Amino acid sequence: MSQDTTPETIFTNNSTIAIPDTGKHFQELAFVALLSVVIVITVIGNTLVILAVLTTRRLRTVTNCFVISLAIADWLVGVFVMPPAIANHLMGTWELGWVLCDIWVSLDILLCTASILSLCAISVDRYLAVTQPLSYSRRRRSKRLASSMILVVWFSSALITCPPMFGWYEPGRHEDKNCRYNRNTGYVIFSAMGSFFIPMVVMVYVYARISCVVAQRHDQLAHMDNKHRVRSMRNFYVSTNACCRNRKKFLPALRTILKMRGGLQIVKNKR
């Protein structure tokens, strides 16, 4: 009897015997365990952030309104997007139906886009607060404005997510049991620009401008501090010089002041 042996199967004359690949199986378990830990950390961490802002009055600031939007988006990703991704990875095929597949993919795009645009909104809020501290902080910066910006963030995310629902997708995407993202070239470019590249350019520019403004103000404060030190030294020199020139008038006045303060003993002048 002749046989051909491989790490996964043994072929005999009458049958094929499968041998489990323990290394690959261990890698799958480790990957699933890692994703499970990430899900738990994502859900618990964002839940704590949301509860902290809602229950602590001092944390209910304008900036934290954007943080709440970001935390909600990440919390929904951890609850509704990541667990089906693990199930799809373990099964190898999508077994939950094409309706749930489309909902899952749409939620993934919607929530990830909302998370990125919330970060972009935070950067714009910081930029206006740093570059226009008086006018923006006192007149324009309010929770109503923050709510409007958050509404724009989620509405823009929905606009980027919706086109595949109206037919902008590649043909034949439901032929195999493989739930995947839309591969239509036009939609890929459109979603990538709106979800990643444009927000990235905005955030890089905004934080670069913030760095420049902070560095410029630091230089101005250092220059003002140096001018103040020079002025203080000059005033001290002028005062000391005047005292030395008028010591005959200055010393009797100093004696009188010391006597009034506590009757201290005055040392005689050394001539």
UniProtKB/TrEMBL annotation:
Principal subcellular localisation of the protein: membrane
Listed GO MF terms: G protein-coupled serotonin receptor activity
Name of this protein: G-protein coupled receptors family 1 profile domain-containing protein
UniProt subcellular location: Cell membrane
Residue span, G-protein coupled receptors family 1 profile domain: 45-271
GO biological process, one term: adenylate cyclase-activating adrenergic receptor signaling pathway
Keywords: Cell membrane, Disulfide bond, G-protein coupled receptor, Membrane, Receptor, Transducer, Transmembrane, Transmembrane helix
Chain segments annotated as transmembrane: 29-54, 61-83, 103-124, 145-166, 186-208
Cross-referenced PANTHER family: ADRENERGIC RECEPTOR-RELATED G-PROTEIN COUPLED RECEPTOR (PTHR24248), IP13425P-RELATED (PTHR24248:SF199)
Membrane-topology annotation of the record: Multi-pass membrane protein
Signal peptide range: none
Family to which this protein belongs: Belongs to the G-protein coupled receptor 1 family.
GO CC terms in record: plasma membrane
